[in-house]
Design brief:
mainly alpha
Length: about 350
C-alpha cells in the first residue's frame, strides 16, 4: 500500500513538472516570438517589407572599418535574438529537471520516421533561429531523444517557421515561399531521418554518453539547485564560443559581402558560393528575407538569392559549435553538406524558374 502511494505521488510530480515546463516555455515564446511576430506579420502585409538587411552598411576597407562592421553586425544580431536565446536557455535547463525522461523518450526517442515527424511537428510553435534552438536541441539529446527527432526539431524551427513563411509570402512572393516550404519539408523530415540512419548505434553517440554521465552528482538535490546547475552549465559551455564565433563570422562577412555585391550576376558558380556562405553564416529569425531583398536590389540574380533562402537560416558555424557535444562530427558534417546541396538545388531552380 505504501509503495502504491509513493508511486502515485511520483507519477503526479512528473506530470506536474511537465505541465510547469510547458507553461513556462509557452509564456517565454509568447514574449519572445508569438506577440512580436504577430505585429511583424501586420507590417509585412501592409508594407511588403520587414526592415533593413542585417548586412546593410558592411564595409571592406581598412582594418578599423572591418572591425567596426563586424562589431555592428554582432550587436545587431544579438539585439535581435537575445530574448529568444534567453527563453531557449531557460527551457533547455528546465527540460533537464522538470520533463520526465520516460515521456520524452517515448515521444522523441524513436529512431524511426515517426520520431522524426514528432520532432519536426513539435518545432513549429517555437519559431526560433538556428542558434536559439541549439540549447533546446542539446537539452533534448541529454534527455535521450533520438538523433533524428532532435535534428528535425532543430531544422523545423527555421526551415518551416510558420511566421517566416507568412512574412516571405508578403515580401518575396509565392515562388520563394513555395520553394522554401518544399525544400524545408525535405530538410526537416528527409535529412533528419537519414541522419538517424547514419547513427544506428545511438549508444556510441556523444550526446547519449553525455546524458548517461551528466547530473549524477546533483540528481538528489533540490529542484532549484539542479536547475541552477543545469542553467550554469549551458552558459559556460555554449555562450562564450557562441559570442566569439558570431564576431568572427562578422569579420569574414564584412570582407566578403561588399565584394560579392559588386558582381551582379546569376552564374552556377555564384550559386555554389552563396550556398556555402549561407551555410556558414548566422542570422536571426527571418533576416534572410531582408538579405535576399538587398541581394536582388544590387542586381544579383534569383539563383544565388534562392540558395540563401535555404542555407542562411537553417544552420551556421556558431550553431554547429553550440550543438557539438550533442551529435557526432560525422552527423554534423552530413547536415552541413546536406544544407549546402539543397541550397544549390534551390539556386538552380530559382535561376531557371524565377
Amino acid at each position: 500500500m505504501h509503495t502504491s502511494v509513493s508511486t502515485d505521488r511520483s507519477i503526479s510530480k512528473k506530470w506536474i513538472g511537465l505541465f510547469l515546463f510547458a507553461v513556462i516555455f509557452a509564456i517565454g515564446l509568447y514574449w519572445a516570438k508569438w506577440n512580436p511576430y504577430y505585429h511583424k506579420a501586420l507590417l509585412a502585409s501592409k508594407e511588403h517589407n520587414i526592415g533593413s538587411s542585417l548586412l546593410e552598411g558592411m564595409q571592406n576597407g581598412s582594418f578599423t572599418e572591418v572591425i567596426h562592421s563586424a562589431w555592428n553586425y554582432s550587436i545587431t544580431y544579438f539585439l535581435a535574438i537575445w530574448k529568444a536565446l534567453l527563453v531557449a536557455t531557460v527551457a533547455a535547463s528546465l527540460m533537464q529537471v522538470l520533463v520526465p525522461r520516460e515521456w520524452l523518450n517515448r515521444v522523441l526517442g524513436k529512431t524511426g520516421f515517426l520520431g522524426t515527424v514528432s520532432g519536426g511537428l513539435l518545432s513549429l510553435p517555437s519559431m526560433m533561429c538556428t542558434c536559439c534552438a541549439a540549447p533546446v536541441v542539446s537539452g533534448l539529446r541529454k534527455c535521450s531523444s533520438s538523433v533524428g527527432s532532435a535534428i528535425a526539431f532543430w531544422f523545423g524551427n527555421t526551415a518551416l517557421n510558420p511566421a517566416v513563411l507568412i512574412f516571405m509570402a508578403f515580401v518575396l512572393g509565392w515562388k520563394f515561399t513555395i520553394l522554401r516550404l518544399i525544400l524545408g519539408v525535405i530538410l526537416v523530415f528527409g535529412v533528419s531521418y537519414l541522419a538517424n540512419r547514419i547513427n544506428k548505434d545511438n549508444l556510441t553517440d556523444p550526446g547519449i554518453l553525455e546524458k548517461l554521465n551528466s547530473n549524477e552528482t546533483s540528481k538528489n538535490k533540490p529542484l532549484l539547485v539542479r536547475w541552477i546547475v543545469a542553467f550554469s552549465k549551458i552558459l559556460v559551455t555554449i555562450l562564450p564560443l557562441y559570442i566569439v564565433s558570431v564576431f568572427v563570422m562578422g569579420l569574414i562577412i564584412s570582407w566578403l559581402y561588399p565584394i560579392l555585391n559588386s558582381h551582379g550576376m546569376d552564374s552556377f558558380w555564384l550559386i555554389i558560393a552563396f550556398a556555402i556562405i549561407g551555410t556558414l553564416f548566422v542570422i536571426p529569425t527571418a533576416a534572410e528575407i531582408a538579405i535576399i531583398q538587398a541581394v536582388l536590389s544590387v542586381g544579383i540574380g534569383h539563383g544565388p538569392a534562392a540558395a540563401l533562402l535555404i542555407t542562411l537560416p537553417v544552420i551556421s558555424v556558431p550553431s554547429i559549435i553550440m550543438v557539438r557535444k550533442a551529435f557526432s562530427k560525422r552527423t554534423l558534417a552530413f547536415l552541413a553538406v546536406s544544407v549546402m546541396v539543397l541550397g544549390i538545388v534551390a539556386g538552380c531552380i530559382g535561376s531557371i524558374l524565377f
